[in-house]
Amino acid sequence: MDVRLPDGTVIKGVPDGMSKADLVVKLKSNGYDTSQLESTPQKESSLTQNISKNVKQAGGDFLAGSVRGAGSIGATILSPIDALARTLNQGKPVSIGGYDIAGQDRRSGMDEGLKAMGADPNSIMFKAGKLGAEVAGTAGAGGALAKGVTALAPNVASKVPVLIDALRTSGMTAGGATGASGMASRVAGGAIGGAAQAGMTNPEDMATGAVIGGVMPPAVQLAGKVGSIVGNKLADRLVEQTKEFNRISPKNETIKNSLAVGYIIPPNIVNPSLKNQTIESISGKQATQQLASVENAKVTDKLARQALGIADDAPLTKEAMQSYRSAQHAAGYEPIRNLGAVKADSQFNQALDNISNKYTGKGTIPAVQRDDIKKLVDSHKSAEFDSGDAVDAMRLLRESADEAFRKGDTSIGKAYKDISKAYEDVIERNLQKTGNVELLQGFKDARQNMAKSFTVENAIVEGSGGINPQKIAAELQKGKPLSNELKTIAEFANTFKTVAKPIEQVGSPASHNLKSMAALLTGSGGYAALGPAGAAAATIPFIAPAMARSAMFRKGAQEALIKKAPQSGNAAKLAELLSNKQAQQVLLKSSPVIAASQ
Fold it and tell me: Disulfide: which of 62, 142, 171, 555 matches 129 by Cβ 3.0-4.6 Å?
């Protein structure tokens, strides 16, 4: 809205309903003089005024309707007195305070009186309040009649206990009676109770109330049985859907995490429906996978860089990874040199024994024993060691591991790596004991980043500067603990291999000689059938696949691949409601009044 200041300045675009205090702050920040505005009484915006007015009107109408509903019952109660007054006065007005209490139509009089007070008898809120009061005021009619008959005519009541129970429950039950006799009693009880309820609001509606009250018990019973049958089937279906959802939850989580970082997945891979199969056929299966792989390769490279915290344009080469590790070593490992003596605790020595035991066994099979590994492990056992020597040892152990792996001796290569890890673990435990938080965090970060760099380096496609996601997926399959970006790459590549290839393996996307031939045929056929305008059909082989891929890879189609947890639908909720005894009781007691009020 627009606000005019006392000096005549007009401020445009002020949010409707903004308080004067907020407006003053806004104007001051823009250099306006607000002294006159601050001394001016605040006015409500037109929108605020309208909302407030509508809320008050709705509340007033509901309250007035409630009064009117209660008045309907009151008018019925007073109707015999009115009739007697008119009889005794021979049809002449019976005036109290100038008001004819005998000749008036109390219901229309209440309507006029409430209208004069500002209520709208035609509003939804007025009708809701009226109906609510009438239902609440008459709900106990059947029960009151049953008690009255039992109290005033106990002999009669004792002979028809089934009918008394049906009357008390508005036809909900019939004293345990079943079959045709039980239903007849329920219909009779419902009809009597319905007539009483409708008659309490307006005697003229007793017949309508009786019909509705009598019809409802069998209708409600039938609806309840149908609801139970349908509800049970839907419940069984929900159980199966939940089991299926739980079974696919790992894949579903992979899809969600993959889409969140920008990967794209052809829908037909996840959900091979007729629609998805048709769209992919138009696009071309191979072309679809090629184009998806090209885009996904970009995402993989981006995630690999993010995992290491390096720039988006940083080269991905083995030399770059070695340089990265050197920087991490300098930042996190070199400061450890100043720790001095480090105690080799029992966990350190146990870790070394575990490495040695893998290659010694119990000595009964000589081929199992690797004396070189045992000697290597024993050479690192000690009560304590210098932190600087440990830093050098870890570096040499990693280098020796790389050399062993290159030569194909994986056993000793793993031993070198495991010994280095034992040193890292014991240093980390010592840092925790000393409480050196900053040094500990730096060491842990460097250690983790260096481990990530090895994973990335092993996946680098030399000469291209790209990442082979299948190599990272293989690390995950072997049990290597990956996290964050690298875990996302691995899980995606494991699950969707056909669209998770290094770009060098993709080929030329969407190129095919048949397109040119198809374009020639469709163009020639179109020209022959429709002339120059029909020649445009030559573009179909090029346009249709692109349109199909656009449909597959749009945001909505991709998000639809994430399965939602199954929930009870509206049909199940309705079935449950229909078979609910409390809901049935409410329906039986309110239906006669609702029908009569129409």
Answer: 62
